[in-house]
Amino acid sequence: MAAVRAGVPEHGRVPKYYAVKAELETLLAGLGAGGLLPTEVDLAARYGVSRATLRQALRDLLLEGRLRRRGRGTVVAGPKIEQPLSLGSYTEGVTRQGLRPGRTLVGLDRTSADGPLADRLAVAPGEALWHLERVLRADEERVGLESTYLPVRRAPRLDRDFDPAGSLYHYLHEQGTVLGGAEERIETVLASPREALLIGTPPALPMLLLHRSSRDTAGAPLELVRTLYRGDRFSFTLDLGSAPTG
């Protein structure tokens, strides 16, 4: 009941679906990760609600990443993937949690820098850029979509030497280009129909969108990255130092 009370609005009326959601959370804790939920018919009868009310509670738990669809059934999801906000690559973050990182190439194309891209990458308008797009995976599950713009002169043989399943930062380091710093911005968005199809999620699923502007050790712009992460599968962590006193 405490879980229900925590969500009670000031007028004191608890939506029926929210009360059912709290009951379901207790059920999930008992089943554990991977546990199979009873059918909607059985759950609706257990809690004495309509299937429409039950589905609203289940929908919330699915969007929060507490449940996952598996075939025709619904199972309890495991913990979210914690991705540190750091200069490390996606590979490093996923590997630290005992998961197997992977990437599937969507496209590696040569394009020209338009005005905004040229300004942000500090290159001349029309300069050749690589556009690298990949689906991110964790233990073969599709969990995100990454789009990177990089001047061709930074990696002229990218289309011949680079393994799209590997870390771009590791490849650049081997070529003598070292990441020196980055600025990152996070927002919540919905995926476009194309993005949802590539990631394998419903368009209504909230996504975490990260914009990264990276620079090399000399402070020159290196790359622009736009990464969509599934909101039901990822959380982000940041190690904050102690605040100065006085």
Order of helices and strands: HHHHEEEHEHEEHHEHEEE
**Amount of beta strand:** 25-35%
DSSP E strands, number: 10
Cα distance spanning the termini: 44 Å
Radius of gyration: 22 Å
Number of helices: 9
Q: What does the overall shape look like?
A: elongated
Notes on the structure:
- By secondary structure, the chain is α+β, with helices and mostly antiparallel strands.
- It has 2 domains: 2-76, Arc Repressor Mutant, subunit A (Orthogonal Bundle); 81-237, Chorismate lyase (3-Layer(aba) Sandwich), CATH 3.40.1410.10.
- The protein is 29% helix and 34% strand.
- The chain has helices at 2-5, 16-31, 40-47, 51-63, 90-95, 115-121, 158-161, 168-174, 193-199; strands spanning 67-70, 73-76, 81-84, 101-112, 128-138, 141-151, 179-190, 206-216, 221-230, 234-237.
- It has a 6-stranded antiparallel sheet with strand order 4-5-6-9-8-7. A two-stranded antiparallel sheet has the order 1-2. It has a two-stranded parallel sheet with strand order 3-10.
- Helix 2 (16-31) packs across helix 4 and helix 3 (40-47) packs across helix 4 (51-63).
- The longest helix is centred in the N-terminal third of the chain and has 16 residues, at 16-31.
- It is elongated.
- The termini are far apart.
List keywords for this structure.
Chorismate_lyase_/UTRA_dom_sf, alpha+beta, elongated, 246 residues, Chorismate lyase, 34% strand, GntR family transcriptional regulator, Arc Repressor Mutant, subunit A, two-stranded antiparallel sheet, 6-stranded antiparallel beta sheet, 2 domains, 29% helix
